[in-house]
Structure formats: structure tokens, C-alpha cells
Design brief:
Blueprint (H helix, E strand, L loop, with lengths): L3 H11 L17 H16 L3 E4 L5 E5 L8 E6 L12 H10 L8 E6 L12 H6 L5 H5 L9 H11 L14 E7 L4 H5 L3 E7 L1 E10 L3 E2 L11 H16 L7 E3 L3 E4 L5 E2 L2 E10 L2 H19 L3 E10 L2 E2 L2 H11 L3 E6 L5 H4 L5 E6 L15 H18 L2
Parallel strand pairs: 3-4, 3-5, 5-16, 6-15
Antiparallel strand pairs: 1-2, 2-4, 6-14, 6-16, 7-12, 7-13, 8-11, 9-12, 10-12
Helix pairs in contact: 1-3, 1-12, 2-6, 3-12, 8-9
Length: about 400
Amino acid sequence: MVNGARLWQRLQTLAQHGARADGGVDRPALSLIEAEAKRTLIAWAAEAGMTARTDALGNLFLRREGREDLPPLLIGSHIDSQPTGGKYDGAYGVLAALEAVPEVPRRPVEVVAWTNEEGSRFAPGMMGSAAFAGARDIAEILACRDADGVTVEQALAETFAALPDLPIGTMGGPVHAYLEPHIEQGVVLEQAGLSLGIVTGLQGKRTFAVTIQGEAAHAGTAPRATRRDALLAAARAATALDALTGDPADIARFTIGRFVVSPNAPSVVPDRVQFSIDLRHPDGDALRRLGDALAAAIATAAAPCTALTEELSTAWPSLFDAGLRADLARLAGDAAMPLLSMAGHDARFLAALCPTAMIFIPCAAGVTHHPAESITPEHALAGAQLTAAAIELWSR
């Protein structure tokens, strides 16, 4: 039986791993802080008689054996956060799943915490689920570096060393179905006065890394007419992209979330700027058209500087399994509504591997990736109860 008080207390306890003074959470992927959070999860699972293992990319699996040797039902989300994250993004899905696992299911049930969903330390995100589903090459992922030059491979070694008793199993394997409970990260459920959402699918997402190359010069002596100022070129490019991706209905989502200036000295004209692009749209054709137009717009706006635009990841819009969605809607009744996810989730990659579904619960004012991120104990319980009902149905 789902224990709402225990679920709520565990959410607050897990948030202490990486707790910020402002009430938020900073728990980078594959950090020692995240390793300690995993240790806490493993201990809670052990109390419930579940076993733990990891894999080559640090995905954590907490397993309840079934009465029959069948492909497992996989349920969970992630526990890494943004640097200024909240307590519930990702973590709610893992802890709701842990709370919902029955004592004696017919088929095995595994609670999963995927590696680097957020992509804030290592880009792009969703590395663990992408590799598990065979969508990305593990060697390529291991070579990725964070802002300090640390590779995923090095960070994994530190994580494994911090959890020496955690068995390292093989990557992937057959899965019966996947369910991801999550906070909505939007305002649709709150405005509708409903406690549950049955996610129909995910809007598409393309990410890019842009490098503007100019020429360093003395801020006092170089005439402005002859400068190749990479910062001003990048600013012109950002303005051009904002206009390119704008639409009257405000459907497209365009974000430059990272901006790095070199040499970043007060009296030197910048010679190099690197920035990120996060482009999202629920329509695949629109996403393709807008994404394909970025490089030319950047190059034109950045002149006389040069521009290199590299696509890091592409995830086209996707729909979740109709049968699982119908099951969830029937189990939830009038408390739920169908809705599209405007944020990306690990479920995107699992949907190509097995029948996949998502459950949303409301978050206050849609605030997320922020210390003010907030949910209620009642909504947390409702999501966990629906998760438990789905497990009972799908593990038969």
C-alpha cells in the first residue's frame, strides 16, 4: 500500500543531497553528491527487500523479483538536477515508483534512476536512457566533457568508487513496459483543477552548439570599424534567431541557455563566443524547418566574424503507447486529463524500445528548474497511487 507520509518525507530527505541555501537543489550528474543520493535510495530499497545494480553509464536499478522470470516492468525517472533546481523534478518519479512497487508481483519490477537526464553537466542530456535504448553510442558518451574538462568516463569511475558494493551489470535488456511519473513543469493541470495528467507524447527538440570566431584586439586602440568582435556578432545572431523562431501563437520554444565569452577580459575585444541553442516544437515539420534555418541565419548575422553551428542532438515529436494511456485513463477516472509534454524526458528513448507511458502531477504555477519548484503531498500521493495501480495491472 502506498504510504503518502513516507513518500513526502523521502522527497524532503533526498533533497538534502545537494541542498541549496535558498531551498533548491544542486545535484550534478555523476557527482559525489549524486552518488550519496544513490546510496540513500539503495538503502531504502534494501529495507523493502529489493536489490540494486548499476550499468556501464551509472543508471541505477532497484529490483523487486517477480513470481515468474519475465521481462521487467521498468518505472522511474532521474535524480540529477539543474544547478538551481528544485526538489521534485525527476526525483518525484523515482520515489513515487519506489513507493508503488508491490511486495509480490507476477513479473519483476525495477525502479530506475537514469544518468544525466538534465544535461546541465554533460551535454546533451538523457545519456543513460539513450544508451540503454541503443540510441547513442556508449564510447561517444564516455568521451563527453563537462565545463571543467572532466569526461563522463572519469566521473563514472568516481561514482563507482564511491559505491564499491554496487554490482555493475550489462547495459540494456528486454523490458515489458516503461512508466515515468513526473511533475508537469507547466500550468495545464493546475488551471484545470486536476491532480493527474496522462501524457500523450513529447514535443520535439533539437540542440546545437554555436562558435563565433572573431579577433582579439585592444579595447583602447582598435578602431571599431575594423574590429571582428565575437560578442557583438553573437548578440546580433541571438537577435536574428529570436526573430526567426518567433510565431504569433507562441508555439516554438527557443532558448540560448549558455553563453561563454573569451578571453572574458575587460579591456580586450572578445575573439570567441560559444553558446547553446535549445529549440523545441510539437510539430515535426516546423521543428525541421526552423532547425535547418539556424546555421545560415547565424552566419549572416555574425559577419564579418565566422560561425560554426553543430547539431548535438535531435529528438522528433513522439506519441506514447495508446493502450497504456487508455489503461491509465481508466484507472484515474475523472481525476485525470490527457496532455502533451512540453519538456523532454527519458521516456522519449524508452518509447522506441517498449510500450511507454507517463503520468504528470501538478506543480505550483508551473515553476520548475528553480528553487521555488513546489508540489503538494496530496498530488504526490495521487500520482504514486496511480503508479501502483498501473504496476498491479501491467505486472499480471
